[in-house]
Amino acid sequence: MGTTPEFSRRDLIKRAAAAGLFAVPAMSALSACASSGGGSGENQVDKGKKSAKNPLAVNETAPLDVVIFNGGFGDQYAKDAEAAYLSAFPKARVKHAATQDIQTELQPRFNGGTPPDLIDNSGAKQMDMGTLVGKQQLTDLNALLDAPSFDDPAKKVRDTLRPGVVEMGQFEGSETWILYYAYTVYGVWYSKTNLQKLDAQYPETWDDMLKVCEAAKKKGIAGWTYAGKYPYYLPFSLYPFIAKIGGVEVLNRIDNLEPNAWKDPAVKAAFDAYYELYKKGYILQGTPGLTHIESQTAWNEGKALFIPNGSWVENESKKTTPKDFRMAVGAPSSLDKNDKMAFGTLWAAGGEPFIVPKNAKNPQGGMELLRVMLGKKSSQNFVQKVSSLTSFNGGTEGLALPPGLASSQEALAKAGKNVVNPRIQDWYVALQKEKIGVGALGEMMAGRLTPDEAITKIQRFADETAKDDSVKKYKHK
Fold first, then answer.
1. pTM to 2 decimals?
2. How large is the average pLDDT for residues 202-222?
């Protein structure tokens, strides 16, 4: 599997190109959910007595209200942490709820000024983080970050976290509004076993990617599938591919909503490459109509080799994953020798965004539960239960890691400093999911838009967001 001598991959793609649906709630509903104003503290419980064992001054008898997104990670890990919380505060009680409809269920509570004390604001129906921050609806978590860590009082919580996690929760200024609990490795997921059956290795170049897909096609196997109904999964491998081709500054300009950011040649090259998968018939038939679970199941069944996803996929798809699957994650293939970043460049960042609402009755309790979760015992429990890392920098010592998680660790080590973290999915949720994902990328990969048409459409969406005074804007520092 060699490279093509006379033409660059970009030239070939250019020549080749020449020859079901879910939407997150509308911004108006989001804005209603996060109306400005804020808690005066009048409805909050009295603080407890601050001590070495209670550094956040939790009221030991106050109830704690927790809502967890019941997705790929489930909610047992949170229940286990809540049990540890109750062990420390036996006179308290915890009200625990798990749902996939975060915004739908919590919007009335925000409107009524009675939000939970701690929320795992994740999933397709998450609340828009940028709106919540812009409308001053969240508690600054720096009190938690500056508290003694759960295992070592000589260390602050912030000093036990993986690089970049604190910064992800900061939108502007020094306040930290979000604590991302999981640490997610995004990329192109595959089965080592299924590649071995084709006598192939993970393709490190795009030429080799196409050759592997062609070999699979001849055996009746698709090269790729993806969550067609939720096509905002595509960026999990597409965005780092763009950065690899043109440099991380391309993603930064996109995040910053700069004029013509989407018209960068690196974006065009990456879109052309992905469109080539469609043009050559390497996408599993029917993929545009598949949910994330259905596409993962088809992948587990060997109907497709590759799927763009995050490291939660190992736990989320475990019921259908064969024992000999040998799940692994690959960084985006190199487009050609002109790429700005080395092979191994990938997207890895905090996931599962936890927030403490400003109007929470027991914000100290919400932060204390997060402090418990960021201890070594809770972190190891999370790793073992859901096959994913946490933002706690460690916690895997002595653990037998499942194949996908072990591969994630290896991918991180190989990437080194070449780790990117696009912020558009945090800063502008509706833009990323509804418009870029569903409105453009999904249409392109289904063959209903060309790459040029998709880029034009996305740039228009980005420009509209940039001009919308009702949307709070954020920029890379």
1. 0.81
2. 98
